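Fold Annotation — chain and its backbone
Next Lines — sequence and tokenised fold

***
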Amino acid sequence: MNSRVVSPKIVLIIGILAVSMASIFIRFAQEEAPSLSIAAYRMFVSGLVIAPFALVNKRDELANLSRNEILLALLSGLMLAIHFHTWITSLEYTSVASSVVLVTTSPLWLTLMARFFLDEKIPRLALIGLVVALLGGVIVALSDSCQRIGLLPVCPPLSEFLGGTAFLGNALALAGAISGAGYFLIGRRLRPNLSLLSYIFLVYSFAGLILVALALVSGAQLFGFAPITYVWLILLALVPQVLGHSSFNYALGVLPAVYISLPLLGEPLTSSLLAAIILGEAPSALKVLGGALILGGILLGSLPSNRNTATSV
């Protein structure tokens, strides 16, 4: 194993456990705080926590950043801001299981993006995996809008289905998956040239500033919450973001992006289990089937890349 890699498997396991708590903290915070404000707090507080360490220990590296590196970090921060804004908002309209399963399809979108931006070939199984995952997404969407009478599902008219809150929530989660893939793709290009501390400071800070600006422009409430709401907001920043996402960003420096995306398959399972225990959101049999197809599709789409890069890793 490369001596530069500090137990990457353990790092990724810690990261997955940390990010799985995000949907629980968000649900509690949404009882009072707007979704855009929650996203802004998550990223802005994360940037503030990391800032002293980065500015003291990585001052020279930050001062010598090229224009291209700064622009890439800004673009990565924008993708991360879009990711969290859309995904956190999706939890207002759909279940934790549906939202987290759909947002975790980012490895498939990452594979497609890598083909066009990094000139990487798309394995045949990746295309099959995409079809399987899309089928699972359709089933998840139907499970949120349709009711089962006997053995057959009964669904509303198409106009009501497309205008339903569950459909909106699922669409927002999917938008979060696509923007999250863009974030990982840019990170894979930028992260090897920067230390972990410099990279997460730049990206988290840019994302936080973008989200705070959006909150101010839109008039979203940023202050005046109950103390317990601030507790959920701070926990959201410290546990899933500083600990969880920083673990993934550490691994981005030494492992291919698609390889890192594979452990994310554990997030929907852990988050859904926590939601069932803490929030009482037990997924239906149809939703479990759709989620299994999505995760199976992601696994099919990601494994070939792992085998091709095993030697270099």
Observations:
- The chain has 15 helices and two strands.
